[in-house]
Specification:
Length: 675
């Protein structure tokens, strides 16, 4: 395809031709000329050097697929789904330009990912926090205001926004004329704005953009690539399939053709909208299916939109897709070995930022953080940046290069003690034991769980969870956990250990959460913003229809919940999970006054053990695991647990990375699930 830069500015860039390629997941993929032209650019080809799964290849050697092949797969699925809808429902008037725009959005939706994907985003926001602190030390004036504005931009940085900026730069730098590829005489600027809107997504409560050349009847087109209504989009379907097949060796965890064949675009009748409301962040709250309330005018307007619905018979299939998502988060995306490798890569970027530079816009020297605000410089960043840092001769990179050397030897940060899992389940008001979300009676004391339900409605009544500390644990940040652990360090050593925080030790939180567009209902006490007990249902915002209905009911949209579609034995006990790890980055010997010198690891272990004991019986449990490599364990770690109803187990001084499940890299013969 001829999507290159061509000669002088007056020369016409030759049009690309269509192309067929073979994808290992979807088979033969046909690409129209415009997509080929976009693919044949440096902006898109850089995705070939950005791995889809970041640090997961440190656990699964086969997790090497790139964002390039994922993007091609998303474009293919977007076209397949839209062409099916066009054949089944010609009244939708889906044009060739609509199909092309949605496919193009699928192709470029991940352009804005930086090196190692989400790790770069974490690094940029951290750098924004550091620059905010430096800006606060500057004297009042324009320089301080400029520094503060720059820090704010870094802290708000999102890869979706960078995808939109890079898409513009891709078209302009490579002189790709959209008008040459679209069938109609529609304004090319409107087509460009429509593609960018599809990449960013449109929440149900948002106003319809007036500058994309389409009216609200095409609202369903936003449900394909980035679905803010219920999270079921081709982006998610492709990466779940691709990641499972690459890492677990699964043939096909679910069947896409069955799902696509069951789709239909329906606009719900306004007089049959169930009582509910859309919140500002796009979530649907309120209104029970068995006791509907009166819907507001805004709720009716938000829900009475053309949307992609599924046949009722595939409701269970959708639940299985979310079950696969939860499994992959547990076994792959949030694997503790992969997480600690990603933590070390993020630290490399932090250590190298002030000392390493590369060629940016106008060939000027650019740092890693500066590239986040410069699309042309950002387009040169790939995963190869780690090797560039490793072989660089620039001064000040010794620590970063040493950290890379440790990773090559699999000398990862060491885990102190065992991980602590914080349960999101509510507690019985009477005995304090954890209770099932759907339980009517406490399994420990037999008393009613009804008291949990009134805390947010009538906060003056003494109902709800009797331990707000657990609810606070669900919403705390890592810095707050580090301070909590630090308070349990002996006072004589607290200052010394505190100065080592984030340099020689840190807390790492792993949160497995459902999509933000899932059902969110309050079950218990309100202890502050985002600290409710919540129940999530992935089917809550998904519309279903019954093809056998006739007459007025033919195009009715039905809303079901997971509980009605699955057997009780299949329902999950909880829908979210938070796990805390304490990592030692570098061992140090500390001295305080005339006291005897002590190791940092010993001080942290004592403090961590005391902190977890304080949580005994309050919804936090210490996780068991295997000891794969010999490490020093002090005698205090071998004590028998205190008598009582503790759910905590005796802690180990060190838990090397790889504890819990065997690594497939160390044991290739192990089962795919045993990562």
């Amino acid at each position: 395809g001829g999507g290159g830069s061509g000669g002088g500015p007056s020369e016409a860039v030759p049009l690309a031709k269509d192309k067929s390629i073979h994808d290992r997941v979807h088979g033969t993929v046909a690409l129209p000329p415009l997509l080929v032209a976009v693919m044949d650019t440096p902006h898109f080809q850089r995705l070939d050097q950005i791995q889809q799964l970041g640090g997961c290849h440190f656990v699964y050697p086969s997790a090497k697929h790139s964002r390039k092949e994922h993007s091609i797969g998303v474009a293919h699925l977007a076209g397949t789904l839209l062409k099916h809808l066009r054949v089944q429902q010609p009244e939708l008037q889906i044009s060739d330009d609509d199909v092309l725009c949605v496919q193009l959005a699928g192709l470029v939706h991940d352009l804005g990912h930086g090196p190692f994907s989400h790790m770069y985003e974490t690094f940029v926001k951290w750098q924004g926090g550091q620059e905010e602190l430096r800006a606060a030390e500057l004297p009042l004036g324009e320089e301080r205001e400029a520094a503060a504005a720059r820090a704010a931009r870094l802290q708000r940085w999102e890869h979706e926004e960078m995808s939109v900026l890079l898409f513009d730069d891709l078209l302009d730098s490579n002189r790709i004329e959209l008008s040459a590829y679209f069938c109609s005489a529609a304004c090319p600027a409107e087509q460009r704005r429509f593609v960018k809107a599809l990449v960013k997504g449109l929440k149900p409560a948002e106003e319809w953009p007036q500058d994309i050349g389409r009216d609200k009847s095409k609202r369903f087109l936003f449900d394909i690539v980035s679905n803010s209504r219920n999270g079921v989009d081709v982006d998610k379907l492709d990466y779940l399939l691709r990641d499972a097949m690459a890492c677990h060796g699964a043939s096909r965890p679910f069947e896409l053709s069955r799902l696509f064949e069951s789709t239909r675009v329906i606009t719900p009748h306004s007089d049959r909208i169930r009582g509910a409301r859309w919140t500002q962040d796009g979530r649907l709250e309120g209104g029970r299916r068995d006791r509907p309330a009166r819907a507001s005018a805004d709720a009716v307007q938000a829900q009475a939109q053309a949307q992609i619905c599924f046949q009722l018979k595939v409701a269970t299939d959708l639940v299985e897709i979310y079950t696969l998502r939860a499994k992959l988060h547990k076994k792959l995306y949030q694997h503790h070995t992969a997480n600690v490798a990603e933590l070390m890569i993020t630290d490399v970027l932090k250590l190298a930022n002030d000392h390493f530079s590369f060629r940016g816009s106008d060939n000027a020297a650019t740092t890693l953080a500066q590239a986040a605000l410069d699309p042309k410089a950002f387009a040169r960043l790939t995963d190869a940046i780690l090797d560039s840092i490793y072989v660089s001769l620039e001064e000040g990179l010794d620590e970063a290069q040493g950290l890379i050397e440790r990773m090559k030897k699999r000398d990862y940060y060491r885990q102190i003690g065992r991980s602590t899992q914080i349960s999101p389940l509510p507690q019985c008001y009477y005995c304090g034991e954890l209770t099932e979300i759907r339980s009517k009676f406490c399994g420990a004391c037999g008393k009613k769980c009804k008291g949990r339900l009134h805390a947010s409605e009538r906060p003056d009544e003494p109902h709800g969870p009797n331990n707000p500390a657990v609810a606070q644990l669900i919403g705390k940040r890592k810095e707050e956990f580090e301070q909590d652990i630090l308070t349990h360090v002996d006072e004589a050593w607290r200052g010394e250990v505190g100065t080592c925080s984030d340099v020689d030790w840190c807390v790492w939180l792993v949160d497995i959460k459902p999509p933000s567009c899932s059902k969110c209902s309050v079950l218990g006490g309100d202890h502050g913003d985002n600290l409710y007990w919540r129940v999530y249902d992935p089917l809550w915002n998904t519309g279903f229809y019954n093809p056998k209905e006739e007459g007025e009911q033919k195009d009715s949209v039905h809303y079901v919940d997971m509980e009605s579609q699955m057997s009780p034995v299949q329902l999950p006990r909880a829908n979210q999970e938070r796990t805390l790890y304490l990592y030692l980055k570098n061992e140090r010997t500390l001295r305080a006054g005339g006291s005897e010198a002590r190791l940092l690891s010993e001080l942290l272990f004592d403090a961590y053990e005391a902190w977890t004991k304080r949580l005994k019986g309050k919804g936090a449990t210490s996780q068991e695991g295997n000891q794969n490599t010999p490490t020093h364990t002090p005698s205090r770690a071998q004590r028998r647990p205190a008598q009582g109803k503790s759910t905590l187990r005796p802690m180990k001084m060190f838990t090397p990375v790889g504890e819990g499940e065997e690594s497939t890299e160390a044991h290739p013969s192990s089962e795919p699930g045993g990562d």
